[in-house]
Write a structure and sequence with these properties.
Helix content is 27%, strand content 19%. By secondary structure, it is an alpha/beta fold. Helix 9 packs across helix 12. The structure holds ligand MGD (2 copies), iron/sulfur cluster and molybdenum atom (MO). Molybdenum atom (MO) binds next to loops.
């Protein structure tokens, strides 16, 4: 039976192919995008992390059957919520929707992840298509906006070989160190970077008239829009100058250009405006619909698929879930107590619910609050199908070995449906095939029905018969707040300020809150703290203590705490993005205090 080909199920764009035996794994060298190597996280996956090996009720071990019976009773309550995280990216995670559909439960809408950016893309392009990695390979210049590519999408690195690289990021990331140009901008200013580059592009006749005539007729109105912004104060606000802007435009001139955009640019209330502005710049320069060009963000992996798990339930917002409105909350594949913004609010809300059920692999902040714990199976222990949000390869996730204690999402759903007296599910194979049959077979792999070698080649919109819609208005309430204005004035004079942007990127040795957890706050030494010193970091939302790590490459208006750090989300706001129903982790400034 061995070796077995399967796919990594972690929430990571690469979706690497794996060749597994009962106790070894290696990269599938035939997988089109894995480049023959897995990452360090996966290499340790099978051995390092202690699992939840027993069902638990009120902190006492019980049999799985007892826990499932208790789950059934708790789900008989009037108000019940399903809150699903992204611990496993397999499509079968969503099968629990079918249970909540039948029992009249509530699910969530929106996201903790990329919703604001996605909304901005839809505003301009009508549909968010994935940029196939082979177009990156054909580009001359790659502009990387707020994407920590060596850490969060390392399998894209070979596609960047030999390219000119521009990095736009407030942090000097590994890729920024290698870049031809690193624009170390003030956080939350990408919108202005894109608008200023657009304006200078038009002033310097860099735009692509043929492309505009065909795909984007309203570019003159867009030029007028860019002229509403005053150049000098905006360049100061970004912390750049005419020279740097000119260098970027010059590097892009007459070259094939791909823009790769990460979550970093859009963890703000106005994240949709930012993606729309970057897309507007790319359209102006003719960077869509041609070989070696394109704009890649986190794509919609399910685009083009019929989803057998789509239901029409009542929903509440995911990023600001009012847990307290429910008698029973089932948390599956997530760690909301640590991963959602505003941890104090989350904890207070969860304490109001009668029964918390945690269905997962590991003990964490959320399992500690649970009344019932159901051990899950990991992705080597069950069958699934893996889509990606960065390429179009679809791959079966195959069972590599048995798990003596956990239960799959399919069996969980099926058992509960029957306990409630509903019909059993169709076979597991039926659902797996439902997904795979919509794909085109490609050797050992499959390809998503949404695949287009060159996205937007025919036009924009779902039916590819529309023009690009340029950005035409911009509102930003946050910019008007006192806190923001004060910081802006002082930072432009390079004076040390006492409020700092909180940047929370993904960590190397963790996948969100799975695996290694951090406890550091990284800052410029001029902020006046010593290495290893413990400081109180606080914001209007809460506080937590972290260990100082000084780093000369940090901006002096920002501190960085990795997203896997214990306590980081006590500092972040429970607000929703203006568009896209998304969390806004970085719409906050923090203060620091010696203890
Ligand atoms: N190793 C590892 N890989 C992962 C994950 C993980 O936890 N660990 N998580 C996965 C998940 S769920 C996701 S969504 C992806 C996300 O992966 P990415 O899209 O790379 O997202 P982040 O790491 O959150 O942030 C990316 C970059 O944005 C920068 N940034 C912060 N603020 C700004 C800003 O205002 N402007 C600009 N231009 N840049 C800014 C940060 O410094 C950082 O370098 O990664 C996936 N891959
Ligand atoms: N400050 C800050 N916070 C952030 C972010 C940020 O940039 N900054 N990023 C946000 C982003 S982009 C994301 S996507 C979210 C992620 O947040 P969550 O979706 O909450 O993900 P994790 O915290 O990784 O928790 C995943 C849990 O899933 C469980 N699990 C894993 N595999 C399975 C399985 O097969 N079945 C079941 N039932 N359970 C399983 C594991 O027990 C694990 O603890 O975090 C967000 N939080
Ligand atoms: S976590 Fe990402 S990079 Fe690592 S093996 Fe899985 S898909 Fe590949
Ligand atoms: Mo994410």
């Amino acid at each position: 039976m061995y070796p077995i080909k399967t796919t990594c199920g972690l929430d990571c764009p690469d979706a690497c192919g794996i060749v597994a035996t009962v106790n070894t794994i290696k990269a599938d060298s035939e997988h089109p995008t894995s480049n023959g190597a897995l990452c360090a996280l996966l290499n340790k996956y099978m051995v390092e992390e202690p699992r939840i090996t027993s069902a638990i009720i009120n902190h006492k071990k019980v049999t799985l059957e007892e826990a499932l019976e208790a789950t059934k009773q708790a789900l008989e309550a009037k108000h019940k919520l399903l809150w699903r995280g992204s611990g496993n990216f397999g499509v079968m995670q969503e099968i629990t929707n079918l249970l909540f559909d039948k029992i009249g439960g509530t699910t969530t809408k929106g996201t903790l992840c990329d919703g604001a950016g996605d909304a901005g893309i839809i505003e301009g392009r009508g549909v968010n298509r994935i940029l196939p990695p082979e177009q990156i390979a054909k580009a001359d210049v790659v502009v990387i906006w707020g994407k920590n590519i060596t850490v969060t999408a390392s399998h894209l690195m070979p596609y960047l070989e030999g390219k000119k690289i521009v990095v736009i990021d407030p942090i000097k990331t590994a890729i920024a160190k290698k870049a031809d140009i690193h624009l170390q901008i003030a956080p939350r200013t990408d919108f202005y970077v894109a608008v200023m580059l657009s304006r200078f592009a038009i002033m310097g006749d860099h735009e692509d008239p043929n492309f505009l005539a065909k795909f984007a007729s309203e570019h003159n109105e867009y030029y007028d829009f860019t002229r509403e912004f005053r150049i000098r104060p905006i360049l100061d606000h970004i912390n750049t100058d005419l020279n740097e802007m000119g260098q970027i435009l010059e590097m892009m001139e007459n070259q094939k250009v791909v823009h790769l955009i990460g979550n970093g640019v859009q963890k703000y209330s106005t994240g949709h405006h930012t993606l729309h502005a970057i897309d507007s710049l790319a359209t102006l320069l003719g960077h869509f619909g041609k070989e070696g060009y394109g704009v890649g963000f986190l794509g919609n992996s399910k685009l083009g698929f019929k989803n057998p798990f789509a239901i029409k339930s009542k929903t509440v917002q995911k990023a600001t879930t009012p847990f307290g409105d429910f008698d029973t909350v089932l948390i599956q594949g997530g760690n909301p107590v640590a991963s959602m913004p505003d941890s104090s609010r989350v904890i207070t809300e969860l304490k109001k619910t009668k029964t918390i059920i945690y269905f997962g692999l590991y003990e964490n902040e959320t399992s500690a609050m649970a009344d019932i714990v159901i051990p899950a199976q990991n992705f080597f222990e069950k069958e699934d199908v893996r889509l990606s949000y960065a390429h179009h390869i679809v791959n079966p996730m195959r069972k590599v070995h048995e798990c003596a204690y956990g239960i799959s999402e399919y069996d969980f759903t099926n058992t509960l449906l029957q306990k409630f007296g509903f019909d059993a599910l169709k076979s597991e194979a039926y659902y797996l095939d439902f997904w795979l049959n919509q794909c085109t077979p490609q050797g050992d792999y499959y390809r998503s029905p949404a695949y287009q070698a060159i996205p937007y080649e025919e036009g924009f919109g779902e039916d590819e018969d529309e023009k690009f819609t340029f950005l035409e208005e911009f509102n930003d309430d946050f910019i008007k707040t006192k806190q923001f204005t004060r910081a802006r004035k002082k930072s432009s004079k390079e004076v040390i300020i006492d409020e700092y942007w909180l940047i929370t990127p993904k960590a190397n040795k963790a996948l969100n809150t799975q695996f290694k957890r951090d406890n550091r706050v990284v800052m410029h030494p001029n902020l006046g703290f010593n290495n290893e010193e413990v400081v109180r970091v606080y914001s209007p939302w809460g506080e937590h203590q972290f260990k100082v790590k000084n780093d000369e490459t940090m901006r002096q208006d920002s501190v960085m705490i990795y997203a896997n750090s214990v306590g980081v989300n006590f500092l972040t706001p429970s607000i929703l993005s203006e568009e896209g129903d998304s969390a806004c982790y970085q719409e906050v400034k923090v203060k620091l205090e010696k203890i």
